[in-house]
Amino acid sequence: MASYGTIPTSSSPGPATNLEYLSRAKERIKEGLGTRRPWKLMFNIRSINFPGNLSEAISRVRTNVAYFRMNYAIIVLFVLFLSLLWHPISLIVFIVMMAAWLFLYFLRDEPIVVFSRTIDDRVVLIVLGVLTIVFLLLTHATLNILVSVLIGVVIILVHATLRRTDDLYDEESAALMTGTGPSSSS
Predict the structure, then answer these.
(1) Spatial CA neighbour of 142 closest among 87, 100, 82, 75
(2) 62-98 pLDDT per residue, tens
(3) What distance in Å separates the CA atoms of residue 81 and residue 154, rounded to the nearest whole number?
(4) Which residue intervals of the chain are DSSP H helices?
């Protein structure tokens, strides 16, 4: 009966640490997606028209890419995901590499230490980029990947050229002034 107090409690900090890690990961994902603009705003049919000239088209592309960058990234990744459905090995490699990117680059708080040496973020970025390209090339879906990324870029350029930019910051400013913007939501 006296042995009840001798049960080691080293396992209790583990779940708390895991929960903290998961909550930090969730916060970082929310922060990253926080710059995602509402799809309704992005595809507002009243804001679609042809630009008057080339300089206006270039200005629209620059503004829209800066404003809708997270939405555009989601679109390209979705097109890439759809194209890899017919290449299951490539899809598995893609998902594994996305997980590696999340855990080794985007979601980590502390620098990576290997053999008592701190690895710079640029090195991690380069290594992950090279590994992603090499592994996807080894799956023999290179043409499929290039075509799907090209399709995603064309979709983005068409949208960014046709989407007027005069209402983007006005709606954001009005939402922030009335307290209905993303900064007031919890």
Answers:
(1) 87
(2) 999 988 888 888 898 899 889 888 888 888 888 898 8
(3) 16
(4) 13-34, 39-42, 54-67, 69-84, 88-101, 121-138, 142-162, 168-178
- Residue 171 CA to residue 160 CA, distance in Å, equals 18
Q: Within 13 Å, how many C-alpha atoms sit on residue 143's CB side?
A: 0
Does the model's pTM come out above 0.70?
Answer: no
Residue extents of the structural domains in the chain: 36-169
Both tokens of 131, joined, read: 């590994």
- Structure letter (DSSP) for residue 104: I
Q: Are 49 and 170 in contact (CB under 8 A)?
A: no
Instruction: Say how far apart CA 148 and CA 45 lie, in whole Å.
Output: 25
Question: CB of 107 within 8 A of CB of 25?
Answer: yes
Contact 108, 51 (CB under 8 A): no
Single-letter amino acid, residue 27: E
Q: Give every CB contact of residue 121 below 8 A, 6+ residues apart in sequence.
A: 105, 111
Residue 102 and residue 94 in contact, taking contact as beta carbons nearer than 8 Å: no
Three-state secondary structure of 166-177:
CCHHHHHHHHHH
Which residues have a Cβ under 8 Å from the Cβ of 101 and sit 6 or more positions away? Answer: 128, 132
DSSP state for residue 184 in the 8-state scheme:
T
